[in-house]
Here is the input.
Amino acid sequence: MKTSFRMLTLALFAAPFASPALAADVSVAVAANFTAPMQKIAVEFEKDTGHRALLSFGSTGKFYAQIKNGAPFEVLLAADDETPAKLVKEGAAVSDSRFTYAIGQLALWSAKPGFVDDKGEVLKQGAFAHLAIANPKLAPYGAAAVESLTRLGLLGSIEPRFVQGENIAQTYQFVSTGNAELGFVALSQVYEDGKLKSGSAWMVPAGLHAPIRQDAVVLTKGKDNPAATELLKFLKTDKARAVIKSYGYAL
Amino acid sequence: MLSDADWGAIRLTLELASVTTALLLVIGTPIAWWLARTRSAWKGAVGALVALPIVLPPTVIGFYLLVAMGPEGPVGRLTQSMGLGVLPFTFSGLVVASVFYSLPFVVQPIQNAFEAIGERPLEAAATLRASPLDTFFSVVLPLARPGYLTATVLGFAHTVGEFGVVLMIGGNIPDKTRVVSVQIYDHVEAMEYAQAHWLAAGMVAFSFVVLLLLYTLNPTGQRR
Here is the structure.
């Protein structure tokens, strides 16, 4: 009697949320550069599976500290491959769930049309006061930018004009407000449906820096949540990959 | 323990807080005087404007300063036409932002002190034929000393503790805009917890000592 009553209340409470069978929520920590595509993918994910992905955006380094200190995230979509590997090694993530969901494309971007040429010559001419990059100590896109400048032999002349964003989203903000004339951002931030949204950009050739492999992993907190596994499976579908590619990521 | 970069951040923070506090005492005094004495209908609006940074999230202040001081913003256009360039990513930019951000912490204690003086000492000075300026320096300022002490300490400490605004407009440039709070944040994000601890514990100790000094030197209710 008692159990059946409890079952009934449970059913009543669950009913409004349970459109398809056994829908669940999954909290996802998403690297800032993947914000726009992930918002689109989450909508599709809910449509197709009934599961809801609750997204938090930020820098991978901050997420690492939060996850290590008990943050309730169940999936991490990192901006690098080192952090997920490290979490697996430390027992905070499920090892066989890890895979590369996107390879980042670095772009030198200016909010001004025609400011950045398609060969990046603007870096050599140096007619700018500030160049924004993401903090290379913290952000993979920042590290890739420094590596590229080093490879081009321009680091020494440009470094004094660096302004650093705490993550790639803030770096974009410095450039989009015009406070920095140009900056190294993730192509996904300035690109949609296969073309540049505004301003001018140079796609930094992949050969200038180590590939920005962005790995996804199920965290220990999410290992018993079917929605977490489903989400990673969904990221591998053609539908999700099409969205990811439309923002300029390689796969 | 502390690296050169950490010491640079500490020096920069103290410089920023000193310049900001000095400027605030100069700018804050006339504002506080006006707010304490005026019967104008604008008193409420100006008081609210001064108090705004207390309630606004630093991200809001930082974002609007970034936009306003940027090359397309009204402040940015003005500074550019004056040949000063744009303010974000510069020490001067941080000073301007900090002045705005810490304004209420300086104006309000001084204003309270001015209000507590009341009419009578001023009238007494006037009957002794003291000029308004003389009255201000020989009567008002000495009487308002506790208010000035509070204002100085709070203005300084609040600027030292500033983070969100600096993060938004600073650009994290060593020795120019990388203050202690940003340096701590970087250490934490880079998982350099030991270094973060040294600086963070230093901040806790510093803030405690400053407030302790304030409350010891300036117990509330003391001679008004």
Summary: Residues 2-103+212-246 of chain A form a domain with the D-Maltodextrin-Binding Protein; domain 2 fold (CATH 3.40.190.10).
